[in-house]
User: Fold this.
Amino acid sequence: MNSPLLHSAFSRRQVLQSTSAGFGYLAFSALSTMAAERESNPLAPKAPHFEGKAKRVIFLCMRGAPSHVDTFDHKPDLSRSTGKAGQRPGSKLLGSKWEFKQHGQSGQWISSLFPNVAKHADDMCIVNSMHTDIPNHPQATVQMHTGNFQFVRPSLGAWTLYGLGTENDSLPGFVTIAPPNGDGGSQNFGSAFLPAIYQGTPIAVSGAGGLRARFANAMAGGAKEPVSNISNPQLSKDLQRVQLDYVKSLNIEKLNRDVHQPEVDGVIESFELAFRMQDEVPKV
Assistant:
C-alpha cells in the first residue's frame, strides 16, 4: 500500500531541481578530477576547441630533396625568365625543367615527376605560400622548425605536444629520428621556454656506421638499440626504481625550496618517462 506521505513529500519540480543539482555536482567533480590529472601530468591528452581528426603528426624534413619549383610550386614566370640575372652578383635564374599540369577537381599544379601522386590531388593540402626570411640553409631550417631564426623558440613538435598531449604515458609524445648536429641541431626539436618535458626525444643519435645505418639495423632486428642508453646493464630494475625515487625526492625538495622551477619539473618527468620506456621501447 502506498503511503500518502510519499505523494506529498516532493513535487515533480522539486525532484527535477534536486536531481539536476546532484548531476551538476557529479559533472563538476569529474571535471575537477580531469583538471587535477592534467595538472599532475603535463602530457595528458587535452581537449581541443574542435573535435580532432588527426591522430598523429609526421613531419618529414627532406634536406636535399627536390626543389619546390620542381615538385608542387608552379612558377611559369621563373621558367620564362631562365637565364636572366638573379639577385646575387653573377647568378642567373633557372626555371624548372619539368612540365606542370593541373590535376583533380581542385586544379592542383603538380609536376610530371609525380604521375601517381597527381592521381590523389584532391586528397592533399598543398601550401605554397610559406617562406623563410633568409636563404642560408642553417638559419632557414631553424626558422622552418621554430618560426624564427634569430631567437630561441619552441619547435613545431613541442607546440603540438604541448597543445594536444599524448595518450601513451610510457612512450615519448614527440620523437625525432636521426637528427643532425648541424643546421640548428637540437633547436629543431627543442622546447625553449616551454617545460623540458615537451622537447623531442632523439632516436638513433649515436653509434658506428652512421645514424641512419644504426636506426635501420635496429629496425631490422640488429643488436644495436635505436634509442641510446635504453637499457642499464649496471643496475636491476628494482635498484633503478630505488635510485630514481631518491633522485626524485632531492628534486622535489629543491622544487619546494625554490617554489617554481620548470627545469626541475622537466627533469622529474623525463626521468620517470625514461624508466617507463625501458619496458615499452623493446616491445615497439
